[in-house]
Design a protein that fits this description.
Chain lengths: ~550, ~210
Amino acid sequence: MVDWFKKKRKWDLEADVVVLGTGGAGMTAALAAHAGGASVVILEKSKLVGGTTAVSGGVVWVPNNHHLGEVGVKDSRDEALGYVKRLTDGRSDDALVERFLDSAPAMVKWIEEQTPLRFKPLGRYPDYHPEFPGGKPGGRSLDPGLFDANELGPWKKTLRRSAVFGMTAMSVGEATDWGVFSKPLKLPFKLLGERYAKGYVCYGGALAGNLLKALLERKIEPLVEHAARELLVEEGRVVGVRAEKAGQAGQPGQEVFVRARRGVVLASGGFEWNKALTAQFLGGVLTHPNSPPSNEGDGLKMAMSVGADLANMSEAWWCPSVDIPGEEYDGKQLHRGDFATRSLPHTIIVDRKGRRFVNEAQNYNDLMKAFFAFEPNAYERPHLPAWLVFDHAYLEKYALQTVMPGQPTPEWLTKADTLDELARTLGVDARGLAQTVERFNGFAVEGVDPDFGRGESLYDHFYGDPDNKPNPNLGVIGKKPFYALQVHPGAIGTKGGAKVNVDAQVLRVDGAPVPGLYAAGNVMAGVTGAGYPGAGATIAAAMTFGWLAGRHAAAQAE
Amino acid sequence: MPEVEYETTVALPRERVWDFVKDMNNWAPYLTGYQTHEILSDTDSIWTLKGDVGVLARVVKLKAHVTEWNGPSRVSFTLTGMNEQVDGDGTLEMDTNDGAAKAAPGSPAPSASAPAPLAKRSFFGRILDAIFRFLFRRMHGPGVVRALPTGKGGPTSKLKFRLRMDAGGPTGPLVNAMLAPALLPAAEDLANKIAAHLESGGGAGAGAKPAA
């Protein structure tokens, strides 16, 4: 704690509970704490509200949720527990997994009671390993629907929007029903334009918008451009934070001391934009984070500074990513997650030997791990760099990021009339690529991929083209010209951080809680360990532990 | 299809404004998001701009073709997207002034940067001006905010900028919805930056350096 503050002890703001961050974890924690009778101050580092949640798909993955019956899916605690425990790969405490699975359904019910949110179950959105024991073909992922941002009044402009998801006002359920991946030209663009002009948002914007509205209704206004920098500790207890309020128009910022009478909730996101921390901790090579650039590990560093134990630090919510030169978001090159392109027919991913090395349609988190494989003799990662290779048949039918079928071929694609020329342009082994494509084309005709099992899982099919026969994920690569786009190691966030107990209290190395300190979201050691159980698992865990943190903190004596 | 029109007053005679405007190298950098431009001929040029589409900044390459070159009163042009399915057209009109500046009829939003002349404003009016300017900067970033000329110091002229953009292809209706909010600030920004440059004593050659 800064010396002068020890002497002066003059708080600029005081509240029972201070929340750092306005993503799903932070806003849920703030709502829960306030509902529990606590006064709340919520600080946000960036000038926009919504955090990583607002740029996400906004879906919430909740086994045993009360909407499952609407889509005819039966679920059980045991099924969910077995499924998640298999995916954690031994990197999460069983007690936390159980706490998550037991609390998430109640959290969702509570959110629907306390906010305008009314989730809809996505009956056709499968778990990310639906064929594993306990996996489900749909229903666990909940769609936040649309949100009219005008309901936020003057806060409308402060709601963070995604540059990738939710540029259009289309719910996840609509996107699925309309064939957003396989039939992009059939989307109702006139309707989408009208909704956009009216101020509707969707996906993560809808989730964050609803949570923000609920906060505003409780007279809790986030303090934006307030970056928490230090936890203030007295006699071993966290009693507040020192934040930096950004200066206006080139003026220097100012320090703000915020007292937390009952607790501080860290909900400030991951460390994916902090190159030093990612190099220090991650098991893979993260170069292309998809989240807001303000996710620099501030909360992680603050937790470390008060002796927090850490876990799951080598893991991230990995996601293969591509760049379109010139696209910027928050002043940085935008890295677009590739969720569907690689799953659709007429595409493969190859390394510099021109060889496939993974089921390209695998879920984005698990797919990325194949990129990081290490070859000890050569002491290198043979699958980095890697490229998406596809043919003109793809561009005739499907969207490629911002390019719709029939639109001019963008300059940022590598293009060649032959595979040989394409390979030489990329610096890829031409013979290897030719052999790979020939072999893959045989699989496409047969509809079976014996090498990597692409197109076998229901998950693969969800991102494929149901009208493509015999397999929704396999199509011949043969129509010139041929194209390539480099696929980079990206992530929608990191998921290592402070270890917590079942009440979201941050734990020290000796296992005792740090009094007055909680964590939720990507600043917390991820409860699902290495795995990604289904769409919205990130946000569901974030909101659940935010909810637990807010409730527990509110219940503490001053 | 989004179309905007913006008009402001410049404290200089029309001919002086025309001398500056007639060479696009002079004012090219004043275009919102200007990156580079390349002059191909007397009538054709290629412009690279970085513009906002929704929350995203993207680089767009446009081919501009001058269809009417009628100095000192009017320039008309068309725009064709080279890397995006978008086209448009616009005019830049200069006229001798017969009154204070105003947002042109049909303009989709009142111009916060074009209040009544400061010299005629009351104390409360000046406070309101300050508030409007603050709000404008909050909404559109640090654009040029000028105290408009009163007309008492010499001849003035009107500078009017009209711009229409239309995204084509299947996604056109959606892209147009995203483009619309950015067009009026862009038109205001260009007109006010040209006016501010000239009023500060700047002349031809003080602005852009063409890329080629």
